[in-house]
């Protein structure tokens, strides 16, 4: 006899440096659901070789922005994949009110649970402090946060021993611009979600383990998630 499982649809919001990537990875491992970023969705579609994927590849190659209409098609294709049956984490989508409306319709059409909105809130000064003290392994890409001035000491990766370096965009000017872009594109979306009971604001300027504990508490105590009962052929009936 197979136990029922819960379908969890989680949407992560937060500016650069808020820890979205770290928390998304922790939540994905904890709940055994995929963490899906905008970049991952676009790469997935491009690699599929579909007509839509070829169109996306041409748009990106030209340096153009992917429109809402195209991005929505990419999301619809990704969320219908088998690994999303038990739920998923979205990072970087939706970014516009039009995308919010499309996502609401899409989730209803595939019989998915309502999303839980997790907003990682952190001040601009804390973001600058975090990102200017962030280093990346020059070989494997692992991210590290270091104490003191990272330019005054040499730091090395604990995985492969390679030197840690600054990411080119982790400087105060670039960070300020990224925060501005985030606020300009995400403010209306966050405001829309704030009006509903599924929205939860989490203080992100703390240790990752503390933020993760708060996220788990919110997820586990939020209104019940939809139960999925396994049926024939590996599909799920939604109740």
Architecture overview:
- This protein is an alpha/beta fold.
- It has a single domain, classed as 3-Layer(aba) Sandwich (Rossmann fold).
- The protein has 8 helices and 10 strands.
- Helix 4 (68-79) packs parallel to helix 5 (97-109) and helix 6 (124-132) packs across helix 7.
- The longest helix is centred in the C-terminal third of the chain and has 23 residues, at 172-194.
- Residues 230-239 have low confidence and may be disordered.
Task: Map the helices and strands.
Layout: E1 5-13, H1 20-31, E2 35-37, H2 38-48, H3 51-61, H4 68-79, E3 87-91, H5 97-109, E4 116-121, H6 124-132, E5 134-137, E6 143-145, E7 164-165, H7 172-194, E8 199-203, H8 208-221, E9 226-230, E10 236-238
Parallel strand pairs: 1-3, 1-4, 2-3, 4-8
Antiparallel strand pairs: 1-9, 5-6, 5-7, 9-10
Helix pairs in contact: 1-8, 2-3, 2-4, 4-5, 6-7
Question: Can you give me a brief rundown of this structure?
Answer:
The chain is α/β, with parallel strands linked by helices and 239 residues long.
Output the keywords:
239 residues, alpha/beta, Rossmann fold, 7-stranded mixed β-sheet, 3-stranded antiparallel β-sheet, 8 helices, 44% helix, globular, disordered C terminus
CATH names the topology as Rossmann fold
Strand content: 15-25%
Q: How many discrete domains?
A: 1
- Helix count equals 8
Evaluate the radius of gyration.
Answer: 19 Å
Specify the CATH architecture.
Answer: 3-Layer(aba) Sandwich
- The helicity comes to 40-55%
**End-to-end distance, in Å?**
18 Å
CATH superfamily heading: P-loop containing nucleotide triphosphate hydrolases
Strand count, sense and barrel status of the largest sheet are: 7 strands, mixed
Strand segment tally:
10
Mean pLDDT: 86
Shape summary: globular
SSE sequence, one letter per element: EHEHHHEHEHEEEHEHEE
CATH class, named Alpha Beta
Q: What is the structural class?
A: alpha/beta
Name the poorly predicted regions. Answer: 230-239
């Amino acid at each position: 006899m197979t136990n029922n499982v819960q379908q969890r649809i989680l949407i992560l919001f937060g500016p650069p440096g808020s820890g979205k990537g770290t928390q998304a990875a922790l939540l994905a491992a904890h709940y055994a659901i995929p963490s899906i970023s905008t970049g991952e969705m676009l790469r997935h579609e491009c690699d599929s070789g579909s007509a839509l994927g070829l169109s996306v590849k041409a748009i990106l190659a030209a340096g153009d922005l992917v429109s809402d209409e195209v991005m929505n098609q990419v999301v619809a294709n990704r969320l219908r994949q088998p690994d999303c049956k038990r739920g998923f984490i979205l990072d970087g989508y939706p970014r516009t009110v039009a995308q919010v409306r499309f996502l609401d319709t899409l989730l209803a059409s595939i019989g998915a649970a309502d999303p839980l909105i997790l907003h990682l809130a952190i001040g601009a000064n804390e973001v600058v402090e975090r990102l200017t003290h962030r280093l990346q392994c020059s070989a494997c890409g692992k991210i590290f946060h270091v104490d003191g001035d990272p330019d005054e000491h040499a730091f090395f990766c604990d995985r492969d021993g390679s030197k840690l370096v600054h990411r080119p965009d982790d400087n105060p000017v670039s960070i300020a611009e990224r925060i501005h872009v985030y606020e300009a594109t995400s403010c209306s979306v966050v405001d829309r979600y704030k009006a509903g009971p599924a929205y939860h604001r989490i203080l992100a300027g703390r240790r990752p383990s503390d933020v993760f504990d708060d996220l788990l508490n919110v997820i586990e105590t939020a209104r019940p998630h939809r139960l999925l009962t396994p049926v024939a052929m590996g599909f799920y009936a939604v109740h």
